[in-house]
């Protein structure tokens, strides 16, 4: 089960992906056409529901429609509105939907193989409900078990017990750094008595990363439940969800979900019939990548300029308004309901010794199947890129895989057998990051890749500390020389030295990680930089 | 008041609890280069010149913004740290328009002093020569963005000491700049009390008294005459005639 497939024998219905990716591919027009086609054959919503759902995973083939029926689930991609009639005919037919129908034949080109490894190897934990429930319906979420674990925590478990369970799960922060979640919770919970806050970091900004957006757009109640569980576990009664402004649909759905949950008493004062309060608020960013950094994010919530400050003190000690503050990423929080339902040991049984559980990746770039996938940690990079992703279109070879966005690096094709876990990726000079995975084919020039990411860092540097503000500018200029083939041999040393300086001396994680795309491509593709040295290289 | 003991470059020191590593270094007789730091203002750790190494951690920490803790073993210098500091000063010079010879603060400039301290005689990075404006709308003072190093001392002194909060930052990255009021000309900002604190704390020649010439901050009436004489007659140091006192310090002018 991928979370895309429904149980066999499920009632007839059509699930239309309403996430941003499929929307941009025209899913709204398709849904309207489907409703018209349904009316044209005399059916209503009761006989054949057409339900908007979250991400159906294979974003590159959008708009996606899943067709459930007694015979199982069929998934269709790239269906034009003109074919809506055929989809309705397939979905409403009696007998197995695989039957020899003319409509089925017409849709054959759009039918996607759900037994393909892209779907078959996925293990949905965070994305459990994404693609099967209506993100705008609280009732649908409740029918899928939403808020059950929150109620159980509030009624049956002490905050210590909740923290124990999370510690047992081995869950590590999914925002990029991989800090043990249980340890972070303990640090906040064990601060001296007083007010404390929880914050959900939904400022997902890495290029090529859309994991958090998919959760926000596809299953917002799961995130709210996770955040409420975290708040209970650390003793916070106020919290914020900080979402980047570039995610309008996610913001809309999250706000709606929050209103619904508050109106139903699931969140708020004395929520779920307990003696605990939780006041949550959605805060929208203003277009600064740096606000994904914890301390900058907190300043932004306080209404100040989003700039990082030196740590220590850590937000767990002194965060919002100086109070202990727990900050967790969307994916981290969204994993909690399943962890509490199935137990920490169940979660810890997946993945590797040091990296437990599953991780959501956004696969894009030069790869046949682009989209969202949730796989167990420790899976080989090759399995993700070649088996699930189908490799480079038109049969070319993979040259490198970029992970971790502008803070990560490029992993060369000869290292594709590396298991995907925090330590292995760091050892290769990249990092897990938030989960963006960009595949690069043979034609990609690595100095250009490095310059691309450096330009990103130049544009997104907040300007507070010198190495990031001025160092990245000089790095971009140096990289430009390699791209244009007019570098000198000495520029290689200069590049290397400046990278090390910016990495070692920048104030926050963004500056410290900004040279990583250069350092990792220098390490694995040094010959391309050497080729970027002009004919006068090495001569006086 | 409780006391913290720690070592700085192997030297035992005792500082009051709550003291910064910069104060601890001072107690050990070590003068770390700083630009954004100013006693009495909230530390920001922005210039990265006072970074020190701490035994047991791999990350470098800004001495100005790190609280001393019992038993810490701080190392303020190493070939690596010296190289980073020098590179930092080079980056400062390359990102602005720091032409000492034309600067009102020549000879009374902390950036210049730091360059001398870290031994930066030229920049290995090309000068960026950014296009930056000058705000001379205030009747007494002026702001020359060309010399601003974004230390934010002015921002903090105006906010924390004067309580007027005239200054703040706008834009980001290399476009980052100091603004007055709601990005208005300084002279139009009603909140400004014209106290001049920002001018006094500016480490470079970015904020200055309008009437200042180089001679105001560096008073030496004979200097222009001596310089002309030296140039015309080729009479420099060690050629029979001693240079005026004022040039002794300026001889290592890094630009």
Please tag this protein with its features.
heterodimer, A: 540 residues, Glutaredoxin, Ubiquitin-like (UB roll), 4 domains, 5-stranded mixed beta sheet, 14 strands, B: 255 residues, alpha+beta, Alpha-Beta Plaits, 27% helix, 15% strand, globular, disordered C terminus
Structure, described:
The complex is a heterodimer of chains A (540) and B (255). In chain A, helix 7 packs parallel to helix 11 and helix 19 packs antiparallel against helix 23. In chain A, a hairpin with a 5-residue loop joins strand 10 (358-365) and strand 11 (371-376). In chain A, 41% of the residues lie in helices and 14% in strands. Chain A has 540 residues and is of the alpha/beta class. The N and C termini of chain B lie far apart (47 Å). Chain B has two domains: 3-77, Ubiquitin-like (UB roll), CATH 3.10.20.740; 102-223, Alpha-Beta Plaits, CATH 3.30.70. Helices cover 27% and strands 15% of the residues of chain B. Chain B has helices spanning 21-27, 79-95, 110-118, 153-162, 197-201, 214-217, 223-233, 245-250, and strands at residues 3-8, 11-16, 51-54, 61-62, 73-75, 134-135, 141-144, 167-170, 177-180, 207-209. With 255 residues, chain B is α+β, with helices and mostly antiparallel strands. In chain B, the strands form three sheets. Chain B has a five-stranded mixed β-sheet, with helices on one face. A three-stranded antiparallel β-sheet of chain B has the order 6-7-10. The interface between A and B is medium-sized, with 32 and 36 residues.
Topology:
The complex is a heterodimer of chains A (540) and B (255).
Chain A: E1 13-17, H1 20-24, H2 27-40, E2 50-53, E3 64-69, E4 72-77, H3 84-92, H4 102-107, E5 111-112, H5 117-120, H6 138-143, H7 148-156, H8 159-169, H9 181-189, E6 197-202, H10 211-218, H11 220-234, E7 238-243, H12 248-263, E8 279-284, H13 294-301, E9 325-329, H14 330-334, H15 336-342, H16 344-348, E10 358-365, E11 371-376, H17 381-388, E12 398-403, E13 409-412, H18 422-427, E14 436-441, H19 446-460, H20 466-483, H21 489-505, H22 509-513, H23 516-524, H24 526-531
Parallel strand pairs in A: 1-2, 6-7, 6-9, 7-8, 10-14
Antiparallel strand pairs in A: 1-3, 3-4, 4-5, 10-11, 12-13, 12-14
Chain B: E1 3-8, E2 11-16, H1 21-27, E3 51-54, E4 61-62, E5 73-75, H2 79-95, H3 110-118, E6 134-135, E7 141-144, H4 153-162, E8 167-170, E9 177-180, H5 197-201, E10 207-209, H6 214-217, H7 223-233, H8 245-250
Parallel strand pairs in B: 1-5
Antiparallel strand pairs in B: 1-2, 3-4, 3-5, 6-7, 7-10, 8-9
